[in-house]
Amino acid sequence: MNGELAPSAGPVDFPEAAFQSPWMMVALTLIAVWLCINATKISRSNQLVVGVVASAALIFAFLFTRSKLEVVESRPTSRVDGGPLRFEQTEYDFGKLVEGQSETKLVHLVNVTGHDIQLKEMRTNCVCTTATPIETVVPANGKIGVNVSFSSMLEGANRYAIKAIGLEGQEARCEVVFKGSSPLNIAPERHFFGAFSYSTEPTKLRVLDVELTHFYGKAIGDVGIGPVGEDEPFSISVARVYGENRQRVELEFGLNSDVHYEGFVFQDVPLVVELDGQPATAFLNVGADFVE
């Protein structure tokens, strides 16, 4: 495909028009049979019989061939190869991504029709991949860019599907393939709580909702906080784990009354998740400005 638009249909010539019209084909058959009979030495008494049999055989052969061709032409084509909306490629191989960095790749969505197509939505089959169209209307005989975003915190080979859906039901589908390094990540990766004051807010809790990503289908079990030193400024606990795949975690942060900090500080909070019985750890960066 490579973004090439389908050529417009050219003018229909006489043989093609004749083949598409049954009545014209019958007339041409009768004329051909009559000319052939007159050119041969068939007795006049047998001309009628030969003409009827030959005409019937040719007309039957024509109708049979035409019906077979119509069946082939009426077979539905795949949405990727023959639909009005399609990606330039059915598969994009992004290779090995840079470890620990979020990546954004650009792909293109093509409209091969003569009218604009309004996009309804873009879907992916994994929370670790998002597809965002640069524009919401794919122009007639044109294309738009789609930003495919995902983190490189993945382990092994990964394959995810992207589907574009038009307002009138048009669909296009492609797959993205890449390699990563870790089975778990957290979004957001960094959160700033603002100012904390020990003198006025010694016990105030701050709640943070995070999303687990890149577990690619593995079953999520227990979620807990990893080792946190006694000299850390925060007290941290898991309030609840929820979501269809238990991928959302609500954390509670409070002040550690035994430790006093001054100025700005960020802390790496280890979040330990059980994936198919095996522990995986991701770090959430939490910061605050400590004031007296």
UniProtKB/TrEMBL annotation:
Pfam families given in the database record: HYDIN_VesB_CFA65-like_Ig (PF22544)
Membrane-crossing segments per the record: 17-36, 48-65
Gene3D superfamilies referenced in this protein's UniProt entry, alphabetically: Immunoglobulins (2.60.40.10)
Compartments reported by the entry: Cell projection, Cilium; Cytoplasm
An example Gene Ontology CC term for this record: cytoplasm
Domain called HYDIN/VesB/CFA65-like Ig-like: residue spans: 85-157
Main location: other
Swiss-Prot/TrEMBL keywords: Cell projection, Cilium, Cytoplasm, Membrane, Transmembrane, Transmembrane helix
Highest rank taxon of the organism: Bacteria
Name assigned to this protein: HYDIN/VesB/CFA65-like Ig-like domain-containing protein
Protein's organism: Stieleria maiorica
